[in-house]
Specification:
- The protein is mostly helical.
- It is built from four helices and no strands.
- It has helices spanning 33-52, 56-65, 72-84, 89-103.
- The longest helix has 20 residues, at 33-52.
- It is flat and about 85 Å long.
């Protein structure tokens, strides 16, 4: 390649990195599509299973909400009611900020 001008550097221009071309290479396991997706599915499944593992904190919280003599449906109703009463502060915090901006 020859006669390629340099990227312009101006005071109010966007960052130079957003204007230049680049090639990125990603190396993935497997030599075929099916092998790749099998490997990826196992990797993702491991993360999902780790997220869904029952912890001692969850067991203690559930035990405090239900009685040993409750039927399965009564346990489910009590646990459902408790979960519905939780406040997702990530969501409500964003919603409160958005509503505050609308009032301004």
């Amino acid at each position: 390649m020859s006669d390629i001008p340099p990227l312009p550097s101006e005071k109010w221009a966007p960052p130079v990195e957003s204007q230049r071309y680049e090639v990125r290479f990603y190396f993935a396991p497997g030599s075929s599509a099916s092998q790749y997706w099998t490997t990826q599915a196992n990797y993702w499944l491991k993360d999902v299973n780790h997220f869904a593992d029952v912890s001692g904190t969850i067991k203690a919280a559930a035990a405090s909400l239900v009685a040993p003599g409750d039927s399965d449906i009564d346990k489910a109703k009590k646990l459902y009611a408790a979960v519905q009463g939780l406040d997702n502060t990530d969501f409500t915090g964003r919603r409160a900020k958005r509503n505050a901006r609308r009032k301004d």
